[in-house]
Amino acid sequence: MTLVTRNRCFRAGIAATGLSLIAIIAAAAVILPVYPKAVQAGIRCTAGFYQKIVAGFMDPSPYVAFVTMVGSVVYSLIGIIFISYFFQKTKSPEIIFVGLFIISLAFESVRIIVPLKLILDLPNFYLINSARIIFFGRYFGLFSLFAASIHTAGLENQKQQYVILVCFAASLILAMGVPVDGLSWDSTLTMLNDFGSTFIMIQAGIFAITIAGFLISAYTRGSREYIYIGIGALLALVGRGILFTGDTWASPAPGLVILSFGTWLICTRFHHLYLWL
Known about the structure:
Blueprint: H1 3-31, H2 35-40, H3 49-54, H4 64-86, H5 95-104, H6 113-120, H7 124-152, H8 160-177, E1 180-185, E2 191-193, H9 196-221, H10 225-245, H11 252-274
Antiparallel strand pairs: 1-2
């Protein structure tokens, strides 16, 4: 992928995430009053390691789902703007995948479908497809960081387009293959599916391989920068997980801080590696 093509992808990402944020802002006055009813209609609290820790100290709040959704989209917009600016002339083959990871969080904006259903009495078709879009975005973000770790191990830059296509196809297959319950959602307004534990194991495996890929690159390439990139990827994925599963006020700020710091660590180290190339 050429530098020009990559920068065009970043600009397209800025436009897409910007539109997602505008859509949320435009709908906020309408959907916010419905959030208590929407969250109360959820049949269970969300599952997550961090969430299980804080659940004993704080009760869920109906507006946390809105805040984490907005936070995800704002992070996505600001993050891709910064990457587009600072890497405009820097030939880092991995940064396209980091950019795709950042853009993937804008898919969380689709969570507004649940309150819109209660207001407009939308068919369940919209809920099911919105869930598939959310799942696609989450898988695509994870696969994108995984692809970045593969590139640090020495994958040819000419194959970037094929790797992106594989990530897209794998995410789409997983999202379309998940049996979604069109009538039930959790306290984050994410639709439920029947294979939750199975897909958690799949994501955990990809998570571990991604971090291991960066650490292996640190050894094979003899550069400590990849250790910091691996730590950054770990933090970014942990922060993202907190945002996705948080339903108490203990979640939005820590999730965004950890996610942002991890992303900053990844980007600054890649920029340092390729600054003089």
